[in-house]
Design a protein that fits this description.
Number of domains: 1
CATH superfamily: Alkaline Phosphatase, subunit A
Number of strands: 10
CATH class: Alpha Beta
Structural class: alpha/beta
Number of helices: 11
Strand content: 15-25%
CATH architecture: 3-Layer(aba) Sandwich
Order of helices and strands: HEEHHEHHHEEHEHHEHEEEH
Radius of gyration: 18 Å
Length: about 300
């Protein structure tokens, strides 16, 4: 909620022109997916690794059992959401995408475009979708056939299941915001009951989504790459300006494929997410794109 209020004030102060640079476009075309290989990205905003491990999370534990798992993933500098999600979904660090605060002004997205740009470049027939609890998340990517914002994590989950069952996008990005909200309200720490409860609640939502995906894999021969990631951890009731704090900067990354046995890797970077998805979709990475990460597929 704080993010939406801050964004509204930001627009009023800076005028409509500046806010149109990356518009909050809502698109509601449910385009049928074409590929047997699917991608689901689950973003759990503000989820600390030690708190995730302390929480009761059977759905995420199950995903980890079929995944490359990093519990020491460097999310990079500038520990707030806009730089964090931009690093994940543009495949480059802030020194390239040029975002260091929760503002999109001065971004270098034209030189370093988002994941969907490259997918559309090679596979314009694929169905792309984003569903988020944080409206600004819609400003980070382009080319979606479907892009929508909801005011609760539960409604994000409900719409994700509806979409998967009705048109099954080839690539679906989900953003959940309750964990970050609990951190700001009560504290980012494994000893804060409300923070742990928010993680466990998001695990329940993930379980409902994964039940649909597991069923589709069993009956329709679909193969889903499922990536679970976060943009930052936190300390106290904040996370900004905490580049040097382990609990804020170093997060987790789960890269699940159907035939994968669990592999724990000692380190990774959030910039690894984009090349991982591109490789899974068999999109060759051009050196001219100047991406910072590497694929984590085994």
């Amino acid at each position: 909620m704080k993010k939406e209020i801050l964004f509204s004030l930001f627009c009023i102060v800076l005028s409509l022109t500046s806010c149109k640079e990356n518009r909050l476009d809502v698109r509601t075309d449910c385009v049928n997916g074409q590929s047997q290989k699917k991608v689901l990205f689950i973003g759990l905003d503000g989820c600390r690794t030690d708190a995730l491990l302390a929480a009761n999370t059977p759905a995420l534990d199950s995903l980890m059992n079929q995944a490359v798992v990093s519990l020491h993933c460097d999310r990079g500098a500038h520990t707030v959401s806009v730089p964090g999600w931009s690093t994940l979904l543009h495949g480059v660090n802030p020194d390239k995408h040029s975002l260091t605060s929760n503002s999109f002004r001065g971004n270098n997205y034209k030189r370093y475009p988002d994941l969907f740009h490259y997918i559309n470049l090679y596979h314009s027939d694929l169905s792309l979708a984003t569903i988020t609890h944080w409206a600004d998340f819609l400003r980070i990517t382009t080319f979606e056939d479907y892009a929508n914002f909801f005011k609760t994590d539960e409604k994000v989950k409900d719409d994700a299941i509806r979409l998967i069952e009705n048109c099954t996008p080839d690539v679906l990005l989900l953003h959940f915001d309750d964990i970050d909200g609990a951190g700001h309200n009560k504290g980012f720490a494994p000893n804060i009951p409300e923070y742990i409860q928010s993680i466990e609640y998001n695990d329940q939502l993930t379980q409902e989504i994964m039940e649909v995906i597991y069923q589709r894999e069993a009956t329709l021969n679909e193969e889903w790459l499922v990536i679970v990631a976060t943009d930052h951890g936190g300390n106290g009731t904040g996370h900004g300006g905490q580049d040097d704090l382990e609990e804020t900067r170093f997060v987790f990354l789960i890269v699940r494929t159907p035939q994968q046995s669990r592999v724990d890797i000692p380190s990774s970077h959030n910039v690894d997410v984009m090349p991982t998805i591109l490789e899974y979709l068999q999109i060759p990475i051009n050196d001219d794109w100047d991406l910072d990460g590497r694929s984590l597929l085994q």
